[in-house]
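Researcher: Please translate sequence to structure tokens.
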Amino acid sequence: MLSIFKTIPTHMDYKGQKLAEQIFQGIIFISAVIGFLYGLVIQQFGWTVYIVLGGFVVSCVLTLPPWPMYRQNPLSWQPVVPDTSAEPSQKPQESLKKKKHK
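Model: Translation complete:
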């Protein structure tokens, strides 16, 4: 049963993140304007809140899951460079720790 969850893609590329953010902000803005105008016309602030919350739910459904439209531009990673030195090199932090302070 847990193997089903491993098949679900969980990544989103950078252009997909930008697109998701733009869609999210656009839906929130449009629902806020519509909610404000509708609430103003009928003189009920509650409807304004309901419409904005509805826009929030719609934007979450459209932007939070990693839909295929957000995975169109995958990153091409550089190949791994093999280590050619015979002895392991020290990390800079380790060499600093060995120095004695006066």
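Researcher: Any highlights?
Model: Residues 14-42 form the longest helix (29 residues).
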